[in-house]
Amino acid sequence: MAERKLTLNDPESGKNLDLPVVAGSEGDPTLDISGLHKELGYFTFDPGYGTTASCKSDITFIDGGKGILRYRGYPIEQLAEQSSFLEVAYLLLYGELPSAAEFTGFERDITYHTMVHEKLNTFMQGFHYNAHPMAILSGVVGSMAAFYHDKLDVNDPEQRDLAAKRLIAKMPTIAAAAYRHSQGWPSAYPKNSLGYSERFLHMMFSVPAEPYEVNPVAARVLDLLFILHADHEQNASTSTVRLVGSTGANPYACTAAGIAALWGPAHGGANEAVLNMLNQIGTVRNVPEFIKRAKDKDDPFRLMGFGHRVYKNHDPRATIIRKACHDVLQELGKQDELLDLAMKLEEIALEDEYFVDRKLYPNVDFYSGIIYKALGIPTSMFTAMFAIGRTVGWVSQWLEQSNTPTRIGRPRQVYTGATERDYVAIEKR
Ligand code: SDX
């Protein structure tokens, strides 16, 4: 089949330039504009990279119009229903579902990297007791290069793989320690006899004074949430990890940068902002006033957990989480009026033309906080929970980029500042 292309005609120079369509396995046609400046002297302008592909990737596919999300070709709905977070981690990292033997080996590797260097626990004690967990997470993860500098050659595939496993294994340990620090509790060490999500809950809530039994319902729904948050192609935090990685920085520095990007309320910080918003709205009676505020350009209030740069249809993760909310609250014998409020808010918003015209639907962050709350996880920890799941995506995308020769990321700009002018001595100003 003839190569698909778009031909540009430049009236300035009278030159034509063929822009070839980059071959992908599926998704919207994407033009290769890398020759544009050399051939015609133009750059492109795309604030927020809304229509710019930064890389090729085999990992995650999203079709925003159809509300499709697949990890390595497997629909998120099937993975949510039939897989486990560690199995999904293997899939995202290595591209294929593991055999039983491969999974056993991978699970063992992760399990035996869950402890952190004891000096890291000491380092953690230096944070103020009410430090935000994301501040601790980004600080501690960035400092891992000071503790695990023995295997930091990013050009060595084995050392890259070890760093990836260390990050996946230790993120829950560090996140749980951040929570315990805020509670004034002693560190809890990972129990290797437990599974990934159970082990995290045990590190979060066990106390030395008595045995702590992990609720299997809580462990199962947490594993589901980690699966749903694991990767999402080139979102802001993953793009940050790739950009930092393109300089050759070590994986701990890359991941710490990803954590910092995720923290923003427009990104992973939205799950914490949704709970704060629902508490601010308080009752269904107040919903119309807040919907009005969300539509008012002069009001900074946004409907947190709503809208998405890519999904212009339902976020498939939100659909799965909304159902899990009901199931978990029922299984735990809990009620939460905030769930009723969230459902009503969604219903009213989706009847309003402002949201319908702009294709604004609930995203992954709209319902997840309801479940975290039901598990006893404080709002301040919600984004840290997102980071635990997304660490798998960050390291998978970092590995994919590190495994192929990559140029340093260096966007250009449209300069709108002062043109050349001469310096004026202060006494003459
Ligand atoms: C995540 O990229 C990813 O994949 C991210 C993520 C992942 O897994 O990594 O999916 C996770 O970050 C989900 C998004 C969480 N953030 C929020 O829930 C915060 C609230 N949402 C908005 O801030 C916003 O929708 C964004 C940031 C998510 C998307 O912003 P865009 O794509 O830049 O969209 P936009 O701001 O250009 O909005 C288009 C229009 C604007 O109105 P007009 O200028 O056309 O009149 O929609 C309006 C916006 O004002 N709008 C909203 C709104 N979101 C967009 N109006 C009210 N409430 C909102 N939430």
Q: Could you tell me the strand content as a percent range?
A: 5-15%
Q: What is the CATH top level name of one domain?
A: Mainly Beta
Radius of gyration: 24 Å
Round the mean pLDDT to the nearest integer and report it: 96
Total number of helical segments? 18
Structural classification: mainly alpha
CATH topology of one domain: Rubrerythrin, domain 2
One letter per element, helices H and strands E, the order comes to EEEHEEEHHHHHHHHHHHHHHHHH
Label this structure with key terms:
three-stranded antiparallel β-sheet, Rubrerythrin, domain 2, mainly alpha, binds s-citryldethia Coenzyme A, 18 helices, 51% helix
Write the layout of secondary structure elements.
Blueprint: E1 5-10, E2 15-22, E3 30-31, H1 36-40, E4 60-63, E5 68-71, E6 74-75, H2 76-82, H3 85-94, H4 100-111, H5 118-125, H6 133-147, H7 157-183, H8 196-205, H9 216-229, H10 236-245, H11 251-262, H12 270-281, H13 287-295, H14 316-331, H15 337-349, H16 353-357, H17 364-374, H18 382-402
Antiparallel strand pairs: 1-2, 2-3, 4-5, 5-6
This protein binds s-citryldethia Coenzyme A.
